[in-house]
Amino acid sequence: MKLKKKWIKEPMYGGNFWFCIGNKNDLFKFMKKKKFDIPDRLKEVYVDGVCLEASNGCRILYINEENLSVLVHELMHLTQDRLMLLGISMTEETKEVYAYYYEYIFEECYKFLALKNLRRK
User: pLDDT at position 114, please?
Assistant: First the structure.
């Protein structure tokens, strides 16, 4: 599948990121064009999805196909990474912050996908 990508703006905490779905080689071409370093772990292994930070601090959430389970998994990493970077640990008092953040980025990614093509594993 040819790489589809969308810049997702997250206004609450400034955690904007690229959401990319498709062929990993096309992801590498996109990253090179944007002058992002490609992590060795992404080059060497097969991945269904990954959440990573590019060399300039830009975040990328990548999934190799339209798979809801993988999207949900990677969005959890993105949520944890972003909020922990801001010093917001997951506690009883902050779990709603995590839930609202996750809900927002999930909806933005979900709107981008062709919903009829999503599969569950």
Answer: 60
